Amino acid sequence: MTTNFRLPGPTPLPPAVLEAMQREMIPHRGGEFKALFGEILCLAREIHRTEGDVLVWPASGSAGWEVAIVNLFSPGDAVLATVCGDFGDRFARIAARFGLDVRRLDVPWGSAVTPEALAGALDGGAPVKGVFLTHNETSTGVTNPLPELAQVARDHGALTVVDAVSSAGGLPLETDAWGLDFVLSGSQKAWMCPPGLLIAAVGARAWDAHRSARFPRFFWDLTAARESAMANMTPTTPPLTLLYAYHAALQMITAEGVDAVWARHAAMGELTRAGIRDLGLKLFADPVYASNTLTSFQPPAGVEVDDLLRTLRRDHQVEAQKGQGAIADQIVRIGHMGWVHEPEMRGALTALGASLRSLGARQPLVAVL
Ligand code: PLP
């Protein structure tokens, strides 16, 4: 029996992506590579809904925070970091380590950052050069209201730096229409690729900020990446196999249609939340802001998170994940992003009900499927 791989990243690879990775190496300064990379950048721009630049590095998503910091800011610059979970917290801590003057807007985990709260934080203090936003907080399963938050940030003259690691490719993301200045993501989530590619969309205001940003940088330098990208190349040896994979995935998303992909994610989110509720379980995220790329819930009293995950894996070949940070042992997270359809989600919900029953949970645990 194959594993029903329901982590909130990495995510399962579609057959076309797996097949693309079988391809032999090609010269990375030759015409074949340039045609491939040119098409990747073009498709990625379309899916990000931007006329601006999209750049790619061999790295995991976390590098995107560093790319943003060293390219758009200078030591001592004030920024506001919005924090509603573990990833927002990491972004804030990395910025502090680089010597930015980090102000924080913390909200309880499981809640979203609201435009009102952001406006309150920005109105109250000295101006900030940038606002850090986590589009989809993977540690809690919350999707923040990004268009509204970006509007508030812009109204206050701040750059919007967006962590879209678990949203890009799966949730509506309108880089230009929403006025997002820097959007970072990682290949291993809704992009349906293996881990290892950092993808960043960079808009005009970000380029303006970049020109006066004074951190030293080499590998992450935006100017170097853009100069190469203009020739459909990368400054250093590109991760060819990952780029073959990304190319295949972008073609799949384009063939399905970006709006259809977003709608499929919305349907998977609905289905999963309904199934969890039917099992009598408590969803963790504020329902108004529940994510359509992953769902988090609390196990019933008397059932430990680790036992539930072990039972799911051992008896049903379903891989899910626990929480992070302070809520690591309080919630379970089930991913439904990327290459995911109804049968896998229904299978996971059935397995969840059976696992809870075998662990002696008391609720009437029958998912209505
Ligand atoms: N930001 C978010 C929202 C994430 O979900 C993750 C990883 O899960 C990261 C950042 C860090 O990405 P990576 O683990 O690829 O470095």
Short synopsis of the structure:
By secondary structure, the chain is an alpha/beta fold.
Question: Can you offer a commentary on this structure?
Answer:
The protein has 369 residues and is an alpha/beta fold. The protein is 41% helix and 16% strand. The strands form four sheets. Strands 2-10-9-8-5-3-4 form a seven-stranded mixed β-sheet, sandwiched between helices. It has a four-stranded antiparallel β-sheet with strand order 11-12-15-14, covered by helices on one side.
Structural features:
369 residues; alpha/beta; four-stranded antiparallel β-sheet; 41% helix; globular; binds pyridoxal-5'-phosphate
List strands and helices in order, with pairings:
Elements: E1 4-5, H1 15-20, H2 31-48, E2 53-58, H3 62-72, E3 78-83, H4 86-97, E4 101-106, H5 115-124, E5 130-134, E6 136-137, E7 142-143, H6 146-155, E8 159-163, E9 182-186, E10 197-202, H7 204-212, H8 222-230, H9 240-256, H10 258-278, E11 282-283, E12 294-298, H11 305-316, E13 318-319, E14 321-322, E15 332-335, H12 342-358
Parallel strand pairs: 1-13, 3-4, 3-5, 5-8, 8-9
Antiparallel strand pairs: 2-10, 6-7, 9-10, 11-12, 12-15, 14-15
Helix pairs in contact: 2-9, 5-6, 9-10, 10-12, 11-12
Pyridoxal-5'-phosphate (PLP) binds next to loops.
